Amino acid sequence: MRIDLAACHRLAAQFGMTDLIYTHISARVPGAEDQFLINPFGLLFDEVRADNLVTVGADGELLDDPTGLGINRAGFVIHSAVHQARPDAVCVMHTHTLAGVAVSALRDGLLPYTQHAARFHGRVGYHAYEGVAVDLDERARLVRDLGPHKALMLRNHGLLTCGATVGEAFELMYFLEFACRAQLQIQATGQAVAVPDRDAIQRAAQTFDRAAGRSSPRLWQALLRGLDRTDPTYRHLPPAR
Fold it and tell me: Residue limits of the Class II aldolase/adducin N-terminal domain (predicted)?
């Protein structure tokens, strides 16, 4: 799990889904359902390794903090909310990309202009902006707005995805980010949009649902091979205890 989570940070950096040190990705600790791993608050995503992730308890206590940097308070609020409420959410990924923030601020949100966007038709929640997410009482509303979905638009703020594996959460974030970028470019032309009919959009979404369990592991292994060719330092594990 540590290696996959570190890889996810490196991939987010590689694909331009970072905001300096201010976003976060987490994964539940195997065998300890009330604990999760998250990036230290002060490292860029391309500095994250398997051995410098922070282990966080259910109440926010830092059970293992190798760098001594601690964690982002908003990161704890957002990620603990999802991990505690959704047993299926092994990994939670949150970004502040230009495209994601822009689309989250649009009244109509994500529109079904592309095949990438169709994947999220009826499958993305919306959470109203309440200020920087540092108050624990926001967790209940965030979880309510996520509902049964694996994707959430945090209005005026950014994107969130979750998955049963790190690979699934990353794949969903990649598709959601791509859909946001495409939408903004389409809207920037000022031309009329050829919007697919509702039945076609729904069929596409259902096809993605059926294929997810097969495609995600293949994609994840391909992405890891790419990282291993360029910079395998993300794999550094802490010494055995």
Answer: 3-184
> E-strand spans in the chain?
24-29, 32-38, 54-56, 62-64, 91-95, 125-127, 151-154, 158-163
List, for residues 113-123, the tens digit of each pLDDT value: 999 999 999 99
For the record, the structure tokens of 13 come out as 């950096």
Strands (DSSP E) contained in 136-217 are 151-154, 158-163
pLDDT by residue (tens digit) across 162-196?
Answer: 999 999 999 999 999 999 999 999 999 999 999 99
**Domain 1-232 belongs to what topology?**
L-fuculose-1-phosphate Aldolase (3.40.225)
Q: How far apart are CA 162 and CA 83, in angstroms?
A: 9
Count how many Cα atoms sit within 13 Å of the Cα of residue 13 in the half-sphere of its side chain.
20
- With CA atoms as reference, report the closest residue to 127 among 102, 99, 105, 97: 105
pTM: 0.95
DSSP state of 197: P
